[in-house]
Input
Amino acid sequence: MEFHNKAVIFIGELRKSLKLLGMAVLAATVAVFFLTPDLLRVVQSHLAENLYFFSVAGPFLAHVKLAVFVALYLLMPWIMAVFWRALGKPFGVEGGQLFFFILCTALLFYAGTLFCYFVTLPFGINFLLGFGSEQLRPVIAVTRFINFVTLFVLAFGAIFELPVFMVFLARVGVCPRRTFEKNRRYALLVIAIVAALLTPTPDIVNMLLMGGPLYLLYESGIIILRLMGVK
Output
């Protein structure tokens, strides 16, 4: 019953800001749309050589998807603020603590996306395209390319926020620090599974590029809890 009440409060607080946030995302998407040709050239020069389209609406849809992604990327601090204000309300998290969660999640999100874009994706794409030959030449659809890149960038940004959510769960008494310490082996197993699912290639190098930092983030969450004196 208590969980149900907290969930109701969270959803109620979240709904208060969703309309304004949605309008902001829409406005940002429209504004960014006119810059997507340049943005696509930058991404293409970094990750792929030639892109193609196989439907009349293909290029337009690719630019729209890229514009939506960039809009969400730029507005992520605001999105985090809306989320944490709503989540903090039923648990009594406010003031400086609330600012800490907002700031840290935004910073870790951007750190994860940059790590993915500059490290993991180039390795993964080069590995996959390495199977090409004279008989198998890559013909990459622009819409699928945009889907592939934006999905993994957002996924890396999300998982890099792990330490902040560990601190929050321990802070509100849902999952004490000792639980994280006692279940390292299970955490390592879950991290390995997540890395296998989310990395663009199944090879051990790319899995380590994701799983390694993720486990370090897990351990850093435990260290932060110790320094904060949270049991």
In short: The chain has a mean pLDDT of 86. The chain has one domain: 2-228. The first strand starts at residue 51 and ends at 52.
